[in-house]
Amino acid sequence: MSDPTQADAPQGTAAAHSAVAIAVEAMNKTFPTRRGVPDVIAVEDVSFTVDYGRTLGIVGESGSGKSTVARCLLGLTPVDSGRIEVLGRSIVDAPARSLRAWRSEMQIVFQEPYESLDPRYHVWESVAEPLLLHTDLRGGELAGRVHELLEQVALSPDLAGRYPHELSGGQQQRVNIARALATSPRVLVLDEPTASLDVSVQEGVLRLLLRLQQELNLAYVLISHDLKAIRAVCERVAVMYLGRLVEIGPTDEVLSNPKHPYTEFLIGAELSVDPDVAPAARVVRGEVTSSQRPTGCVFTTRCPLVTSTCHESQPPLIEATPGHDAACILVKPESAASDLSGAV
Ligand code: ADP
Ligand code: MG
To answer: Which domains, and CATH codes, for the chain?
Structure first.
């Protein structure tokens, strides 16, 4: 198995000269709805980068646009506007043929392991399929690579003849990860990869993903509801609300020193299931309502700290501490010596 590093990124591209594997700038995606109902703004003005060998976590409630970001990132859903570069190639407006050819280097693992597998293929066929599509490996070489992939995801070769319905959820997801890894991708997008698995197997899958990242220097985008998983895997985390990125920064810093009331709410919601921890100080009510998008800041309808100014315009992301940005009028650059905790 080769050990890809940034040095063997596509030559003659930005990726060949920097550590950046994914660069997204001002991504916008709207879905039309039936007549008379405003379009759904699924993603609005989202920007981030991910380096080789690093993981960006994306968190946010259901409907906040996480999966749309994931799909747009890999060209599975076309964006309305914005710049997306993966491995130094522009995804926006790339012909379908190019996207298909590049697919082997940028893969996605979805939440539902069973639905992602073809029920007619047993494990060996499932893992061999992407190799047959994207490589010239045949015969003994093909068998060798399938064997190697099963080993990489810690699946016993005894399972090679089993069909998806004969596997546990954790085993099914390992098959999906083996399929995603088959063509030696450089970028892996993981859309809630452990959400449908038992807690007992979630940790094993996350450990596997971490090990593979270290071995293969992969860039990950990990979408998850589970802040514990985000803490364990991601160096950086982005928080989405109603299609917008409201906070982004180093995971430890964002989760221990949140600058946006919505991030604080997510952390509080996680803690509130722990009986030993006091409930969140500030109560955020209601649910994400993309059909009633507020004017001004997207969080005004639920924000416990809302003021009249918040209805005027959407605050931009402001760097609160180095590399840690949040989009709230209460956030001031650290030099201005004011933050959320001082605002109440
Ligand atoms: P998340 O993954 O955070 O739950 P999604 O990206 O799936 O969020 O959805 C964001 C918003 O876009 C939601 O309001 C959802 O209903 C809408 N949406 C997503 N995909 C489509 C689609 N194909 N057609 C219409 N609306 C969609
Ligand atoms: Mg989703």
So the answer is: 6-234 (3.40.50.300)
